[in-house]
Amino acid sequence: MSEQLTMPLNSQILSFFKEAIVFVSKDGMIIEGNLKAYTLLNAEQIISNSIEDYIDFRLLLDASQSHLLMEMKTEKGKLLEVKSLQVNENLYCLILDELSIRNRADEIKRYINQISNNSVEGIVLYGKRAIIDCDDTFATMFGYQIEELKRKTMDQLIDAKSYRKLIETDLVTINGVLELKGVRKDGTLFYIEMVEYPYYKNGKIIRAASVKDITERIEAENKIEYMAYYDELTDLPNRNFFNKVLKDAIIQAEQQEEKVAVFFLDLDYFKEINDTLGYSFGDKLLQACANRLKLFQQLDTFLARMGGDEFLLLQRHTEKEDAIDFAEKLIAEFEKPITIDDYEIYTTVSIGISIFPDNGLTASDLIKHADSAMYVIKERHRNYYNIFDSTISENFKLMLTMEAELRRALKEGQFELHYQPQINLLTNEVVGLEALIRWNHPEKGFISPSEFIPLAEKTGLIIDIGDWVLSEACRQNKEWQDKGYKPITVSVNLSAKQFYQRNLVEKINDILDETGLEPSYLELEITERMAMSNEEEILETLHALRKLGVLVSIDDFGTGYSSFKYLSVFPITKLKIDKMFLDEQKKENQAIVKSIIHMSHSLNMKVIAEGVETREQLDFLTSERCDEMQGYLFSRPLPPKKLTPFLG
């Protein structure tokens, strides 16, 4: 058949080409070629020989044009780049070129880049397993010399799990990008990205692959993933991870008709410990508590940190009784002391529990309901657990509604200040006013502070509300003075969140400047517990306020854990005796009141008694030389318009 073929080029013209060229019939017989081709194929006379003796020609028959990389059959390790062009139905033109990874790495890379459109770091050629050749970059990447690698197999350079992935993917993927773990000569693992390039459709004689070291990128991605799903302080999964696991647990429980319990844990008294011993100590406490909770991790549980001092715990394959038993074990574990920096800390936990499907069908509902149940038990009885019920949900809906209305009240000016006169017991004159907030709801009328102040504290709205109270009390007092009334002091209660603001002194100074009120006519009331929470910081704030000229008093004195130390160190101007000590039915109360009055006077502080309602109480206070009083016996809190008769 070859004699009947018409050659497009005669042998003389062929000799002028630098490339090795042969013409081959469809059945593989060599029709014509140039000297370069004879030399390359290491044959003195190749005409009438079959090209199949040298390369796998059958792989070139499927396309009119092909560009393949092949190993010569007659010389192991000799690689040929073969470009094939079908001249006509029965004739093929083959352009041959030898490729050596070491001597012609750039050509190999260009060849791979033509296919992949990607830059490569290292390249390797290998057979089924054995490495045929590689470039310097690939060898350096794995810590070998090139000659060393040529005695290795691919499964020695890739860890077992990754190698299985390579083999399995190779069967189904063409030009696939694989992320694998490489094994260096010293045994250390690193991440590589490997891309194989098949050069024919029906099988592979030689495999070429580009390899990149992507360790830095993978580690960065792992860090990002860790940040997305883990809490850095406690090394526990975070809420995002918990939410994902809970969703999967719900699906499984639904299929198997089982129950899942969600536990919402809150550390009791963490804020007080944090404020007293500092944030660094608080972080150590959170880590210690997290380690204690890790003791409860089992195959059917999953633990996460919600945020702050709150944790989440999931229990699979459970019932209500199992959940209760688990909660009791958690509580018992946290009743044991925790030792940190030579301090023996006793902190307990309040736990809210919700159960799928009884208390919710979605992850978000279960977490929300467990949180609600925890909130209720923490308000009533710490160091205990509470299982969610529907009434809790209704109460929370009311709370959310009130929160929205609180925000609207602040925006629309629904708050008012009423003032209760404070009387000098020696002169019987009004010497001060306590500002007390009232919420005049447009539909519900006046709402008691006991209903909305706790909510304002929880939501943080107390800061904005407290700022308004301060500003309005100073403005009103200055207005009375400008109208010619006798200057008196207005006292304002500060919440804990207000008092712990870093910019509190600056904020009060700005309010005084804006309203024009002299600092000596403003008195700030803080509670005894607030004064004791973090001595060093509190002392700094109190001295700054006194330097500003503002008066500071301690409210509800005697209800906390007072000591002479605090009273002698803190720059306090007045103590307010809580009304609970004015109960005449208990004689020990009178003894307490006497002690407070005498102690205060010895420290050059004034004393005011609140909640005075009977003449007997007044007579007792007068006889004990109490300085001031306020209470219903003299006047209830009044709006500004009704106060003018008392102002003189």
TrEMBL record:
<feature type="domain" description="PAC">
    <location>
        <begin position="176"/>
        <end position="226"/>
    </location>
</feature>
<dbReference type="Pfam" id="PF13426">
    <property type="entry name" value="PAS_9"/>
</dbReference>
<dbReference type="InterPro" id="IPR000014">
    <property type="entry name" value="PAS"/>
</dbReference>
<dbReference type="Pfam" id="PF00563">
    <property type="entry name" value="EAL"/>
</dbReference>
<dbReference type="InterPro" id="IPR052155">
    <property type="entry name" value="Biofilm_reg_signaling"/>
</dbReference>
<protein>
    <submittedName>
        <fullName>EAL domain-containing protein</fullName>
    </submittedName>
</protein>
<dbReference type="InterPro" id="IPR001633">
    <property type="entry name" value="EAL_dom"/>
</dbReference>
<dbReference type="InterPro" id="IPR000700">
    <property type="entry name" value="PAS-assoc_C"/>
</dbReference>
<feature type="domain" description="EAL">
    <location>
        <begin position="399"/>
        <end position="648"/>
    </location>
</feature>
<dbReference type="InterPro" id="IPR043128">
    <property type="entry name" value="Rev_trsase/Diguanyl_cyclase"/>
</dbReference>
<feature type="domain" description="GGDEF">
    <location>
        <begin position="258"/>
        <end position="390"/>
    </location>
</feature>
<dbReference type="InterPro" id="IPR000160">
    <property type="entry name" value="GGDEF_dom"/>
</dbReference>
<dbReference type="Pfam" id="PF00990">
    <property type="entry name" value="GGDEF"/>
</dbReference>
<dbReference type="InterPro" id="IPR035919">
    <property type="entry name" value="EAL_sf"/>
</dbReference>
<dbReference type="InterPro" id="IPR035965">
    <property type="entry name" value="PAS-like_dom_sf"/>
</dbReference>
<dbReference type="InterPro" id="IPR029787">
    <property type="entry name" value="Nucleotide_cyclase"/>
</dbReference>
